[in-house]
Write a structure and sequence with these properties.
Layout lengths: L11 H4 L6 H12 L10 H11 L4 H8 L7 H22 E2 L4 E2 L8 E4 L4 E4 H4 L4 E5 L7 E4 L10 E4 L4 H10 L4 E3 L1 H4 L6 H14 L3 H5 L4 E5 L33 E2 L24 H18 L4 H9 L6 H6 L2 H4 L13 H11 L2 H10 L14 H6 L17
Parallel strand pairs: 5-8, 5-9, 9-10
Antiparallel strand pairs: 1-2, 3-4, 3-8, 6-7
Helix pairs in contact: 2-3
């Protein structure tokens, strides 16, 4: 059971409310925001509010669009919103290099964020800020279903575990004092109706490679180790769907995460039983969980040599080999990123990543891998070689940059 205990935010029922006149809508906004604006005081508001009504927007959408600039001057807030929208369009247009066919702005902010106060997904420019990001592993097909929700404007079905709700997730995030949050199932366009797919492919080209930067450009990263919105338990550590074993979560590892789904029975590190002499966690599964987590933090936060991150990725589980390579992009790339192309072969995606990675990592591939490459290039291994090599090199980095033209 969860209950929100912080400052007042609108409920899901309030968000879905439809209002029929600008005067009625303004009164509702005043009530929520604690203001006393009138249309006589701000006549310019009437056209904007009426336009939202004509477009069929519910109160949640309207509140989400206006609340960041509602005080101290709503007209100035609207002007700033238009400016930020124009800048966002220009930024995303310039993010993909037409000539190079690469992403030339690796730190691109997310396209959308979840506004927890309004319970609506909004374009990033509406918030212009990200308070946190949620990391979780998708459950097996039999343990999840898709829901159609007003949160994302019913644009695509949202996959979540069958034994939880988005409202539960929202309440827990609100209790963590978060406002604007990135959650993949809501903020990254998912598979949906056929007319959705062309737009999804276009967005994923830049949005998927830049997911890593989303997690590392925010202060708070919330980890659901047992599935989105589910209680934190150790469960089966050998399950390919466990958070510790998924390819995508490797780029989401942080040194100081917020553990979500906490219950009195959750094995939090602060209360697990520890051997008084050795200092080791007594329970075998709990010890394995925290030792594996510590190893992931070490291998991803301190990349002296590319082989530590390759070793962490190559045996992880993913829907495709292409996803494993895409999950490496943020960790190893330099000033630009290869795009995500669903039709691309894993080997072509790996070659594109080698071209984009930090020069010293290319040096490690050339100087330290024990065998010649078996693909078009002999000087670096194929992805299949990386996966199948019995033991990857353990040496420190050669610190010898290799340019790739």
């Amino acid at each position: 059971q969860v209950e929100y205990t912080g400052p007042r935010v609108i409920s899901s029922q309030e968000a879905s409310m439809r209002l029929s006149s600008a005067t009625e809508l303004l009164a509702r906004l005043n009530e929520v925001e604690g203001t006393s604006y009138t249309l006589a005081q701000y006549p310019q508001l009437a056209q904007t509010l009426q336009q939202y009504i004509v477009e069929g927007c519910d109160f949640g959408v309207i509140y989400a669009r206006l609340r960041s600039g509602w005080t101290p001057d709503p007209i100035l807030g609207l002007q700033n919103l238009r400016t930020r929208k124009k800048e966002d369009v220009e930024l995303r247009s310039a993010a993909f290099g037409i000539k190079t066919r690469t992403i030339i702005k690796p730190s691109l902010p997310p396209r959308r964020v979840w506004d927890l106060y309004s319970n609506r997904v909004v374009p990033y420019y509406v918030a212009s800020y990200l308070h946190g990001a949620v990391s979780h592993s998708w459950m097996h097909d039999a343990q999840r279903h898709t829901v159609h929700t007003a949160i994302n404007g019913h644009e695509w079905p949202v996959p979540i575990p069958t034994d939880t709700t988005l409202e539960r997730v929202r309440i827990e995030l609100l209790n963590l004092r978060l406002q604007y949050v990135w959650l993949d199932v809501l903020c990254l366009r998912q598979k949906g109706p056929e007319h959705n797919e062309a737009t999804r492919d276009q967005e994923w080209r830049t949005d998927v490679p830049t997911i890593g930067s989303v997690y590392h450009s925010t202060t708070f990263v919330v980890h659901y180790y047992s599935g989105l919105g589910r209680p934190f338990r150790i469960e089966n550590l050998d399950d390919e769907r466990h958070w510790l074993n998924r390819a995508w979560t490797l780029q989401e590892v942080t040194a100081d995460p917020i553990i979500a789904g906490e219950t009195p029975c959750s094995p939090l590190s602060t209360r697990v039983a520890v051997d008084a002499e050795t200092g080791e966690v007594i329970d075998r599964d709990e010890r394995r969980f925290y030792n594996t987590l510590a190893s992931l933090v070490s291998n991803t936060q301190h990349l002296y040599c590319i082989y530590s991150i390759l070793d962490a990725m190559r045996h992880r589980s993913a829907s495709s080999e292409l996803d494993k390579i895409a999950g490496l992009v943020y960790r190893v790339s330099a000033s630009y990123l290869p795009p995500y192309i669903p039709s691309q072969s894993p080997e072509d995606a790996w070659a594109a990543l080698v071209k984009a990675m930090l020069p010293r990592f290319r040096g490690d591939l050339l100087f330290l891998f024990p065998r010649p490459g078996e693909g078009f290039h002999r000087w670096f291994p194929t992805w299949q070689q990386v996966k199948s090599e019995a033991r990857l090199p353990r040496e420190e980095s050669m610190h010898e940059p290799v340019e790739f033209d």
